[in-house]
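Morning F.,

Quick status update on the modeling queue. The single chain you submitted on Monday has been processed. Sequence for confirmation:
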Amino acid sequence: MRDYVFLLRPKHWIKNLFIFAALIFSLNLFDIGKFIISLRAFIAFSLISSFVYIINDIVDIEQDKRHPKKRNRPIASGKIALVNALLISIFCLIAGLIIAYFINLNTLIVITIYVIINIFYSIKIRNVVILDVITIALGFILRMIAGATAIEVGFSSWILLTTFSIALVLGFGKRRGEILLTSNNFSEDTRSVLKQYNIQYLDSIIISSVTLTIISYALYTIDSEVIYRFGTDKLIYTVPFVIYGIFRYLYVIYKFDNDGDPTEIVLKDKLIIYIVIIWILIIVGLIYGAK
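Structure tokens below.
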């Protein structure tokens, strides 16, 4: 049973918490009805995410067998048969789409787009340098859009840009960690796209993405429309928390030379957990306290 749970990768569902961003920033956090709808969207996206993870594991089975960490995954290690994994993935796909259908049509369309993009990612895009990480970052945007469509609210372009850019930081940071991990354990890269990257290039693009993240978030906090909607100009004071969170992530991947997996880092690094919680509490206090 543990292997089947691991196959679904529930700890990676933490990424789907981006769905609740629309609930918070639309001032509907305490609306029970919309919270339940957002929760349903979260469940739908989590099931769809598990479908994507399983399909990726099936496609990557031979490469994962040569990877120092991924070779322990249920499919690569042979603990779960390919047929069983495929059946579970199909169940997750159908269940996720059904739940999305009963939310509304727009949410179903967004989740369907996410599925299609990730199928293309597994087949081809995963081997295309730069576009591989951009596709992953687009997935975070679709999560936020799904959350917005579920409760039928809009979203600031600045916050979408911030989400996209921080996803680039996480994505390229993970690529950097994968290069270090595979080069320290094997003479041959386990993922072909890694051969097209090098540490120096990734360092420069990570810096660019960090800069874009900080600037776009800062501009979001001082945007006149945002100030008018929330009735406060104090969001600018949350910028240092965002900067610290990003810098802490960079510290972890550069200091300890791990694989850069953002999920592992967020779940294990207490300082990042604390700063995220503090940031959320301050955001909620500022935008809801002003009303």
